[in-house]
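Continuing the series of single-chain predictions for the mutant panel. This is the parent chain; the variants come on the following pages.
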Amino acid sequence: MKKWGYITGLLCVMAISAVAQDDTARRYDAFFLDAICQREKGNNDAAFDLFRHCIDIDSTRSEAYYYLSQYYAALKQKDISLKYCQRAVELEPDNVTYLETLANNYLNQRKYPEAINALEKLCEKSRDRDDVLGFLIQLYEQQGDYDNAIRTLARLETVEGKSERLSYAKSNLYSQKGDKKAAIAEMKTLADQYPNDNNYRCLYANTLYLNGQKKKAVAIYDKVLKEEPSNRNAQMALLAYYNDQKDTANVNTMIERVLFNKNASTDDRVALMRQVIGDSEQAGGDSTRVLKLFHRLLDAPQTDSDIALFCASYMNMKKMPNDSIRLVLEKVLETSPDHAAARLQLVSYAWQAEDRDRVIALCRDARQYNPDEMAFYYYQGIAYYQKGQLDDALNAFQNGIGVINSDSDPGIVSDFYAVLGDIMHQKGMEQEAFAAYDSCLVWKEDNIGCLNNYAYYLSEKGIRLDEAERMSFLTIKAEPKNATYLDTYAWILFMQKRYDEARKYIDLTLENDDDTSAVLLEHAGDIYYHAGEKEKAVDFWQQALERASDDSEIKGDRQQILIRKIKLKKYVKE
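Parent structure:
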């Protein structure tokens, strides 16, 4: 009976313990689930507290430690983060996510031996993780542990299979270790495996060359080129050899072979042309051979614009004629019609040559390929404006407004609105013109040309004269001998009935004007009349009339008014 009583008691204890464990597990799971829900909602403070409570409930479960490790990392408490991550791995050593996180923790704290240990364990759990093996190789190499780097590289070969990349990496590791024989043997094995592939033979020769067996390497390159004259790898290797030997004749020969090798990449050609240019500049800067090579390259069909761009850059450096550079830039647009910089340079050349039709055509095409580049709308609009095609000019500028943004060049945008205002004024759209001038000055408050025109047009209307006077004064302060700006200021003073001051500034205008216009002479007459010098006023009006036939601004009714002023010898308001 006593025996059975003992057993019954033990069973009761076990039952109570099991109930308690079940209750702990249920509480842990409930709080853990709530923590996850709060985390998903973005309530990180609540989630953090709930995960900590999970540990208080049961310190033998790994999940809460794992999540808390992430929170402590976000709080920049690296030591605690690492401690919790270590605890998670300790409780669940087969969890690859925990192991990978622990390895990253070690790496972030530059604890490379510990990171290597964690990654090795991760590889044991996930043997096909080539990314982990690759990272291990880097770490071993960084630590100078070439034996383990080579051993790990061999493991990676079992996963991926033997390849050029892995063989080359292994050979390089042997070279760093100082084992030249093994480094050469590794690449020889690869070359023997593919005896008909000359590129592998070149890789083997490269390894020989780097490890001091240059003659043997050169013999292989020569043999490859006899079998395959256009083999790019052998050509580049021999070029490097001739450069080392300072064998100028063979260097030049090999450069040309590579440049015109159909298998050479654009990068190869650009690099070699840099060498040619460097050698040319050191020898005195004769561009003859350089340009000859560039033109031969550009005579062949182009797959990209890099060579043409490089050629144009070189020609700019050598200050070659614009027409010569233009031909090269046009080749750029043949392969890269969306190359904005090249097209803008062509626009610049056409502008300098006063070929407005060419400017318009270039900008029209640019709006197809570079619709967001404001400069093309600007130049196209100005070209139309200078041709007198105001509607086309207005259309170009109005379309360009839509591409102006906060990153646009303030100077260009300011000029953009200034010219738009001038066009609108000529078309009789006065309020729109004044709005454009306002926009111009928002982008650049000291745009002198805009300030002058805006002030003058306000004075013509006889409105906002005080504002016009302030704007005009800024222009003569900036350019005190500019006759156009002085005339505007004198005329505004006239409109303000400040006649003596106006006469002072119209005199300065006449002193600084090389080719006095009929409008300026008429202004002088009007001002002198109101300043009390009527005879001199009539003289100025007479001079204005004589010049009127050559001045497009004094025609028709205005010319008749000028005639009346002279006949009546008095000021006649328009």
